[in-house]
Amino acid sequence: MQIFHTPLPPTEGEGFGKNRFHQVKSPGCFIGSPKYCLTFGRVGEKYCQHYFFLNSQPSMPLSVYDIPFFLAVFLAFFFAIFLFLRRGGRSLSHNLLGAFFLSFGLNIFDGYCLYRGIYLQFPRAGFWLNALPALFGPLLYFYTKSVLYSDFRLRWRHAWHTLLFWMLFGLLVVVYHVHSTDYQREFLQRAHTYTGAELIFGNVVILAHIGLYIFLAYRETFLYQRALRHRFSNVEERSISWLRFMLLSNVLLYFFLMFYIGAKYTVWSGQLTLSAVIGLSVVFLLFVSSALFRALMESEVFGAIPEAESTRPKYAYSDLTKTESQASYERLLHLMETERPWLDPNLTLADLAEKFSMPAKTLSQVINESADQHFFDFVNRHRIAAAQALLQDPKNDKMTILEILYEVGFNSKSSFNTAFRKYAGTTPTAYRKRFAGK
To answer: What does the alpha-carbon distance between residue 69 and residue 51 come to, in Å, rounded to a whole number?
Structure first.
């Protein structure tokens, strides 16, 4: 039989933390976990909260509510260790993502210790990890940049991104760690039920901080995709859909946490449990793991371009005049028609610049200003024109669509179909039928 401990209301002069307990039967306790209902604060104010914490018995049955905690912590630590020990690829990317999973797992473990009341027995161990959510956003953002850009390195100038973490850590040292263990126990008891404005404000700041960095990471993927089109004629093999999927998982978890924290301070707070959040965290980690292992299998994606190229090319300081640019463009068109370099499925801007005997940046300017296109679109436009000619010719009726796309320099059916619809306004099959019998 479990014991339900309820403090008698403090008398005048007892003040905060001087609680007196009496025992009553509690039929609804978790197995093996005594419940404590604590009263504290100003006289006349009663805060009741059940605390679940490990007792001193050598073995204690665990509740099913513990399973999501253990699973989430296990997965987070497993991924972290796996990434820290992994060899090959970009070690910086692996270490940053490993640090993200480690901080995520430690934060869940910290929440479990608070939820189970373990910190009430060991108050000196409490509130060392509560500032970790301020690192989630920066770690995810820097991981994204390390994946996308070949020259990305962590530098001292990046340290300011941890400013919020150190502010929260210092605040916790001042308001908690410098005090006595008795004060710390009272602080822990109060933390379970306290819903003051400063706590709500702190949660809002953390959520806004994480949301900002998720937005910045997502923005980097779009800048990266745009930069690829300036350098490569085939971006299919450099797809970062797995990275966007992982970021999307963070977005979904982020909005759920917004809902949870918002509901926590409303009439719906009783309908939500911390286990529900941890359960969702497990699902989130499983989703992220699928993207993680896919990313590790696609190591060629990592660091495809320098970071400076993620911004739109600027030609304000170029000496190339419009007349020279147009003349160069006409010579370039002649080269494309005669030598047909676009037949190479892996053609890059650097390759074409070498054939054209022109610096790559100048060639990019010529294409952008004269054709108003990315290098990617400029090359694929020639490939589609050649594919249209093949499809129109009755002599090629026996050629399959797959053979035609390889013939003109594509190496992916999906990218060929996308480009064909863009420039021809229809599918390759429908285009061929239009000229059948003519």
So the answer is: 16
Alpha carbon 12 to its chain's center? 52
Each as own residue / partner, the long-range contacts of residues 19-26 (CB below 8 Å, 24 or more positions apart, any chain) are 25/1, 26/2
Q: Give all strands of the β-sheet with 20-25 in edge-to-edge order.
A: 20-25, 3-8, 35-37, 50-52
Short-list 305, 238, 324, 252, CA closest to 283: 252
The distance in angstroms from the start CA to the end CA of the chain is 91
pLDDT, tens digit, 9 for 90 and up, residues 64-119? 767 777 888 888 898 899 888 887 667 888 899 899 989 988 988 888 888 778 88
Burial class for 399, CB neighbours closer than 10 Å (0-12, 13-18, 19+):
middle
Buried-exposed string 38-47: b where 16+ CB fall within 10 A, e elsewhere:
bbbbeeeeee
**Backbone dihedral region for residue 363 (phi beyond 0: left; psi -120 to 50: alpha; all else: beta):** alpha
Digit-coded pLDDT (tens) for 321-356:
778 888 888 998 998 988 999 888 888 888 888 888
Highest-confidence segment of 215-219, 235-239, 294-298, 344-348 = 215-219
Average pLDDT over residues 389-397: 86
pLDDT band at 313; cut points 50, 70, 90: low
* List of long-range contacts for 423-426, beta carbons under 8 Å, 24+ apart: 423/380, 423/381, 423/384, 423/385, 424/384, 424/388
- Six token digits for residue 155: 């530098």
Around 90, how many Cα atoms within 13 Å sit in the side-chain half-sphere?
24
What are the E-state strand segments in 112-230?
none
- Domains and their CATH numbers in the chain: 3-52 (no CATH), 66-309 (1.20.1070), 313-435 (1.10.10.60)
Distance CA 380, CA 386 (A): 10
**51 CB-near residues (< 8 Å, 6+ apart):** 35, 36, 38, 117, 120, 189, 192
Nearest of 236, 256, 237 to residue 248 by alpha carbon = 256
How do 50-52 and 3-8 pair as beta strands? unpaired
